[in-house]
């Protein structure tokens, strides 16, 4: 055996041994093979009986105002314009946008609230359609996070860490559970721009990235114009038969490279090429809404006929759920109301109210809600005090991580309930706190995963979505 052949043989052995050990020590030795074959993954053996098979995560980017939507505080009307007591605010960290304010005037909500359903949930008049499905919802009013700025807060909620470089939740689930549809990605991302969105409202692709997990578990972002996925169509002059010969040739070359180097990412690349080829047929069928009835479009609202809107994306999410896409992430931008909150919040709620309610009702009537977990919320909440001057009919609110509201539905969650609560000023958690890690642990539990056991060894350390924290909130489970 030549020196070159010896070197290649050793490299293959070491690479194979490293990959086997990295997975075997976490109990996920068959993950790579399963993901390449697009079958149910054995990466994270179920520790509990799963109630959900998939997730639709409705992320309101910017931080929805909890006291204007769900956290009803009628007594604050009498305190409007008075300064938030120091005893409530304490020494908590503030953003640079309000830290130097001379006063912190209480801005009671400008909107009326009504109780809905048998649960009696208090919901803002901005969300009348959501009120109609209130008994399907589970409100968590005691969410809290340490992050007070957008990028670290979104990153924290989506990846379990405030700094970039960790896999997103969708990637963890793709890695742990694999795909149930061989012709579509297991993790899909849909973006929409809210009616009140502002130019400095960025979303970074790393939020749906796989980081150190195998790259085939990263989210695939669908577009609203042109091909739903970049480079989905064959280029001019290339027909399907020619594309097939090209893929076969690339596969042969990649297999030879794998034999020489032993890098499993080469097999990932082969699998991704094959998936992309299958997606040339499956994605156009998925995104073609011509088979939807007028009744369905009416249910989701007039915007559902316009690609790229939140309403259209909710309808697409239902179609993906029917096709067993594992993790469907919708981002809706425009919830960062530092000023003009009364007018801008109306616009944002108009975007999402009817589609959210329709998605829940549509999944229920199709028998999909019980095994589909819906998550709704943003990266943090808003302050009860006004940012800047409080006007008679206008105000803004700063970021607030000390308490905020999210809601869940379907997929093993107890419906028609409210969990946790805040103080009289919607400023601090009063009881039953739920941290970001607790929420993520509970979400994984609904899919049958013990959050402490879904791990990946990277640079000598075992990583997981909940880092070294998190407890399942069992009272949320149905």
Fold-level CATH name: Alkaline Phosphatase, subunit A
Radius of gyration: 24 Å
The separation of the N and C termini measures: 63 Å
> How would you classify the helix and strand content by structural class?
alpha/beta
Shape: globular
Counted beta strands: 17
Low-confidence stretches: 1-42
Query: Any idea how many domains?
Result: 1
Structure description:
Mean pLDDT is 88; it is low at 1-42. This protein is of the alpha/beta class and 478 residues long. The chain contains 13 helices and 17 strands. Helix content is 34%, strand content 17%. The relative contact order is 0.21. A hairpin with a 4-residue loop joins β2 and β3. The strands form 5 sheets. Strands 1, 4, 5, 6, 7, 8, 11, 12 and 15 form a 9-stranded mixed sheet that branches. The chain is globular. The N and C termini lie far apart (63 Å). α1 packs across α8 (240-261). The protein has helices spanning 3-24, 31-36, 66-69, 86-89, 128-132, 150-159, 169-177, 240-261, 264-287, 294-300, 310-322, 341-365, 436-446; strands at residues 54-61, 113-116, 121-124, 137-144, 187-193, 220-222, 327-333, 372-377, 381-386, 397-400, 404-409, 417-419, 421-422, 429-431, 434-435, 456-458, 461-463. It has a single domain (43-236, 293-476), classed as Alkaline Phosphatase, subunit A (3-Layer(aba) Sandwich).
């Amino acid at each position: 055996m030549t020196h070159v052949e010896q070197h290649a043989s050793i490299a293959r052995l070491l690479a194979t041994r490293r990959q086997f050990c990295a997975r075997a020590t976490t109990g996920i030795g068959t993950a790579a093979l399963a993901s390449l074959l697009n079958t149910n993954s054995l990466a994270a053996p179920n520790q509990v009986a799963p109630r959900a098979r998939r997730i639709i995560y409705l992320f309101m980017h910017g931080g929805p105002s909890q006291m204007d939507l769900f956290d009803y505080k009628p007594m604050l009307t009498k305190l409007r314009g008075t300064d938030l007591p120091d005893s409530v605010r304490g020494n908590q960290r503030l953003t640079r946008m309000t830290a130097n304010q001379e006063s912190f005037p209480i801005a009671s909500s400008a909107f009326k609230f009504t109780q809905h359903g048998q649960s009696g949930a208090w919901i803002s008049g901005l969300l009348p359609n959501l009120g109609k499905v209130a008994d399907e919802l589970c409100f968590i009013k005691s969410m809290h996070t340490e992050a007070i700025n957008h990028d670290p807060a979104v990153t924290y909620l989506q990846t379990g860490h405030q700094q970039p470089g960790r896999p997103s939740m969708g990637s963890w689930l793709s890695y742990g559970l694999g795909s149930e549809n061989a012709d579509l990605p297991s993790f899909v991302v849909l973006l929409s721009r809210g009616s009140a969105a502002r130019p400095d409202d960025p979303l970074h692709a790393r939020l749906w990235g796989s980081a150190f997990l195998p790259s085939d578990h990263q989210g695939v972002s669908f577009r609203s114009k042109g091909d739903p996925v970049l480079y989905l169509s064959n280029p001019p002059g290339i027909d399907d038969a020619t594309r097939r010969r090209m893929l076969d040739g690339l596969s042969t070359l990649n297999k030879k490279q794998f034999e020489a180097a032993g890098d499993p990412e080469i097999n990932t690349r082969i699998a991704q090429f094959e998936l992309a080829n299958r997606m040339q047929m499956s994605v156009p069928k998925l995104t073609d809404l011509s088979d939807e009835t007028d009744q369905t479009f009416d249910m989701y609202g007039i915007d559902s006929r316009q690609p790229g809107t939140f309403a259209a994306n909710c309808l697409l999410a239902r179609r993906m759920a029917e096709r067993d896409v594992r993790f469907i992430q919708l981002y809706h931008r425009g919830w960062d109301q530092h000023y003009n909150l009364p007018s801008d919040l109306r616009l944002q709620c108009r975007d999402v109210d009817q589609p959210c309610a329709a998605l829940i009702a549509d999944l229920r009537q199709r028998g999909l809600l019980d095994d589909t977990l819906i998550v709704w919320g943003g990266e943090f909440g808003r302050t009860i005090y006004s940012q800047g001057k409080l006007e008679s009919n206008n105000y803004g609110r700063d970021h607030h991580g000390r308490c905020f509201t999210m809601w869940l539905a379907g997929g093993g969650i107890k419906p028609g309930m409210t969990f946790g609560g805040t103080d009289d000023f919607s400023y601090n958690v009063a009881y039953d706190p739920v941290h970001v890690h607790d929420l993520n642990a509970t979400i994984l539990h609904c899919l049958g995963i013990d959050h402490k056991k879904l791990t990946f060894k990277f640079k000598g350390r075992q990583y997981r979505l909940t880092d070294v924290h998190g407890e399942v909130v069992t009272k949320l489970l149905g």
